């Protein structure tokens, strides 16, 4: 519990750092671009997008507090640029909660980056994959998928479009279950890339 509270405190202090604010703003902008231009609306109640990866990066770099704020802000900006129907605050809450979840699981996490392979060298799977961090990714994405995307998202759809909860639940559950392993793979690799970039930036300072 003390570690959790410290992470919240450190995450809140990120708002005092200009570099963190600028980096978070750029990631929110990236989220908006991905959400607007790199997404597929299957139905009015079902959309496929990789914009969540920007929020994962924010959660990893700046923690749960900034993840919550940027997640909600990103949803509002996305709606302003590309509105789809009337504004509904439930989706903003879902986006904020997703950012909070990513921050809780990824912030201050020491992911191990696999070193380049020497010619002819054989490495075990344990040397290539950081299974501890992979477990964090699996837990974070599973909780986000089931709690935010499936349960809350289905409830928001039932309110907005007037049909029963169960009508949307099967469709949303199937789509999210299929997409979950893909999202886990993408998140693990994207955060690994973010760490490499971070290391190079701070190394050159």
Structural write-up:
The chain is mainly alpha-helical. The protein contains 7 helices and 2 strands, in the order H-H-E-E-H-H-H-H-H. Strands 1-2 form a two-stranded antiparallel sheet. Strand 1 (39-43) and strand 2 (46-49) form a beta hairpin. Helix 1 crosses helix 3 (52-81) and helix 6 crosses helix 7. The longest helix has 39 residues, at 165-203. The two termini are 34 Å apart. 31% of the residues are buried. The model has no long low-confidence stretch (mean pLDDT 85).
Quick recap:
By secondary structure, the chain is mostly helical.
**SSE succession:** HHEEHHHHH
N-to-C terminal Cα separation, in Å?
34 Å
Please summarize the sheet with the most strands: 2 strands, antiparallel
Share of residues in helices: over 70%
Low-pLDDT segments: none
Return the average pLDDT rounded to an integer: 85
Radius of gyration: 18 Å
SS strand fraction: under 5%
Oligomeric status of the shown chains? single chain
**Coarse shape:** globular
Instruction: Determine the structural class based on helices, strands and strand pairing.
Output: mainly alpha
Give the helix tally.
Answer: 7
Number of strands: 2
Strand order of the largest sheet: 1-2
